[in-house]
């Protein structure tokens, strides 16, 4: 039986991904490490900060030590670093937003990336551009941060967080082919609106991709 190890930077993701594994991959075991400080450090000092790199490296090693066959980093800010360090260490590491990016590029060239925290924007942009280049596609990317949303998330106001994101989506939909929600914590906002364009979130697509 395969075992998935999740690296989270917020405890809110634990139940979400446990439920998705139970629904989509009932034959898999899973467990998680939560390290809130990794995101805080990456936001303040950048993802290339040596302490961020060391922290991610230690987390990946611990997940492997505890039996993870596949590791999923659910933080979009440090996901690229996790994948890079995974490759260099011979580990199978998936950044949570890669399957979402692949799907977005398939759906259309005009993509709006919506984020709640600005540290996610450049890693998400780089990922989408890389995926598009691999497939020979051209992109028209727009990056949008929902003002005030992250403060609500940090304060534990999940309802206010999702409402702010959903309201932002309504104003964006008419100018794109597909909307990408840059962070896993934003996923439930997609269910609150019917926009006429796809709104992609990462958790379900990431877990589903592990079955391939």
Contiguous low-pLDDT stretches (5 residues minimum) are none
Terminal CA distance: 15 Å
Q: Tell me the structural class.
A: alpha/beta
Described by the principal axes of the CA atoms, the overall outline is globular
Global mean pLDDT: 94
Number of helices: 9
Write the CATH architecture name of the largest domain.
Answer: 3-Layer(aba) Sandwich
Strand segment count? 8
Relative helix content:
40-55%
Largest sheet: 4 strands, parallel
Describe this structure as you would to a colleague.
Helices cover 49% and strands 17% of the residues. It contains nine helices and eight strands. Strands 2-1-3-4 form a four-stranded parallel sheet, sandwiched between helices. Helix 3 crosses helix 4 (79-88). The model has no long low-confidence stretch (mean pLDDT 94).
Which labels suit this protein?
4-stranded parallel beta sheet; Rossmann fold; 212 residues; 2 domains; 17% strand; globular; alpha/beta
Compact overview of the structure:
The protein is an alpha/beta fold and 212 residues long.
Write the layout of secondary structure elements.
Blueprint: E1 3-8, H1 12-24, E2 29-34, H2 36-45, H3 50-65, E3 70-73, H4 79-88, E4 93-95, H5 98-107, E5 110-115, H6 121-135, E6 140-145, H7 149-154, H8 158-172, E7 178-181, E8 199-200, H9 202-209
Parallel strand pairs: 1-2, 1-3, 3-4, 5-6, 5-7, 7-8
Helix pairs in contact: 1-9, 2-3, 3-4, 5-6
